[in-house]
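hiii so um. not sure if this is the right channel but i have a protein structure encoded as tokens and i wanna go backwards to a sequence. like what aa goes where. can anyone help
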């Protein structure tokens, strides 16, 4: 069984790689969030701005840069010197594959070889997980390290991951697991912010308090691991502040974390996740929700049978993972601002819960027929994902052609001349990513400065034309979205000893 399970797990990892890497660059970067992360990677890969890049010259980066650093390292390793849609998304794809391997490794430890195979199948059959593994964004990095933190804590609870029946683990091995928890949570913070440590920490606290394991809670409070986690988690924030880029950590903490939680960026109803938790990845998500309910509400039918047929390690693992699921769901339901992607870190844990319920239910009631049916369903889902996701990504970009618009702009604006954006409420990030050049933003009162090029939405040109009566547009592009106009302002005599470009730059910095 072990040998066949190893081969099956290797095959599942290969399937995960195919699903995430297949036609990865087929769709363009045509949405703002991915474009903004892409701009950050551009500055790191093409300009060498590794610590505190400012996309667009003035925008703070929205998330800590672990994903962007990983992407930059891959570009360097592979000798890629220009960021493309495929190269941008490669880091997320590899984190997704690594997440599948990590999930199967934990499931093997917790549930056994068959559980590892069932968990791997659940994760590669999760439409939403694979979809996010094909986007150049930070969320898959967070998912990997949050999962590693929770899994490492389970290993620590069990004494360092020693197999059942072996001798008691040494103190050093258990201590190593605690340092691994700290390392994982510190890197989770560098993936997307403090939320990467807050959710796992609340889960650990809720799990230990719910079972009155106060000794374990006290054992966690060791200075070494705590110091390691804090040093890693705060490293980028402190470095940015000390090097004069305080706007990056200030924006990340105040806007991207606290502001989102209290509703500064918008609000959604508290039941926002109820339907999404079940339907985000049909079948797999529904089974995961059932598993969570059976673990957390043991009076439900079948729950007692499943619990009684599980070993102590299995019960500990599924109870911890169900707690993680519940804490994440409740936390983000309380938060004012909500997004589907906030549930992504649940997928590895949900895959293990799915494997547990399928494995145990097949043992106590339905036998191998249930596992066979489960395998057929997962296979069908994987085939559908393989064909659907690349098609859906390209379909979503139909009529959205920022790359073409940016190409037209670059054809009429010399690379050595100032280019500024004006009046954009959307499309700015997509255009800036594809322009791949120095750009800035200009206010209306500075839009008539001499010798600069101004890029603006076509719908704003009519109102601006009255303010710039002597400046004709050098480009009007309206074939697809975004529809843009480029205006070149008239040159005025420059002060003695200064260049027209310098004069234009000095005027256009009125932000």
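sure thing!! here u go:
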């Amino acid at each position: 069984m072990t040998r066949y399970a190893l081969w099956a797990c290797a095959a599942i990892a290969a399937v995960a790689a195919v699903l995430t890497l297949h036609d990865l660059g087929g769709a363009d970067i045509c949405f703002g969030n991915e474009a903004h992360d892409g701009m950050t990677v551009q500055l790191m890969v093409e300009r060498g701005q590794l610590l505190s890049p400012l996309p667009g010259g003035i925008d703070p980066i929205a998330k800590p840069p672990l994903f962007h650093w990983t992407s930059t390292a891959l570009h360097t390793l592979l000798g890629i010197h220009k960021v493309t849609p495929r190269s941008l998304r490669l880091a997320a794809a590899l984190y997704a594959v690594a997440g599948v391997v990590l999930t199967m490794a934990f499931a093997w430890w917790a549930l056994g070889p068959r559980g590892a195979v069932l968990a791997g199948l659940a994760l590669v059959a999760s439409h939403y997980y694979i979809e996010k593994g094909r986007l150049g964004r930070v969320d898959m990095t967070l998912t990997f390290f949050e999962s590693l933190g929770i899994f490492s804590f389970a290993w620590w609870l069990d004494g360092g991951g020693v197999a059942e029946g072996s001798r008691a683990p040494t103190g050093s091995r258990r201590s190593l697991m605690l340092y691994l928890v700290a390392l994982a949570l510190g890197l989770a913070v560098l993936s997307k912010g403090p939320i990467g440590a807050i959710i796992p920490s609340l889960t650990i606290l809720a799990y230990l308090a719910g079972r009155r394991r106060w000794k374990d809670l006290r054992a966690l409070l060791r200075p070494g691991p705590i110091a390691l986690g804090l040093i890693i988690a705060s490293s980028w924030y402190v470095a940015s502040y000390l090097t004069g880029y305080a706007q990056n950590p200030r924006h990340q903490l105040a806007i991207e974390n606290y502001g989102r939680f209290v509703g500064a960026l918008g609000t959604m109803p508290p039941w926002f996740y109820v339907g999404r938790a079940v339907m985000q990845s049909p079948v797999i998500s529904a089974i995961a929700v059932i598993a969570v309910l059976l673990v957390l509400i043991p009076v439900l039918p079948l729950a007692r049978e499943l619990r009684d047929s599980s070993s102590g390690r299995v019960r500990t693992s599924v109870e911890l993972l169900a707690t993680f699921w519940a804490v994440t769901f409740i936390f983000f339901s309380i938060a004012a601002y909500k997004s589907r992607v906030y549930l992504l870190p649940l997928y590895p844990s949900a895959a293990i819960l799915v494997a547990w319920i399928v494995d145990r239910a097949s043992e106590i009631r339905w036998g191998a027929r249930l596992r066979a049916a489960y395998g057929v369903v997962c296979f069908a889902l994987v085939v559908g994902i393989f064909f659907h996701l690349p098609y859906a990504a390209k379909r979503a970009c139909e009529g959205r052609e920022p790359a073409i618009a940016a190409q037209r702009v670059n054809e009429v604006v010399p690379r050595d001349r100032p280019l500024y954006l004006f009046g954009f409420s959307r499309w700015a990030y997509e255009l800036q990513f594809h322009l791949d050049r120095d750009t800035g933003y200009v206010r209306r009162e500075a839009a008539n400065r001499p010798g600069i090029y101004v890029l603006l939405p076509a719908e704003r040109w009519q109102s601006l034309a009255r303010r710039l009566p002597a400046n004709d547009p050098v480009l009007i592009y309206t074939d697809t979205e975004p529809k843009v106009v480029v205006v070149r302002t008239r040159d005025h005599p420059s002060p003695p000893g200064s260049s027209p470009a310098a004069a234009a730059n000095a005027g256009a910095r009125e932000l």
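oh and Residues 402-508 form one domain.
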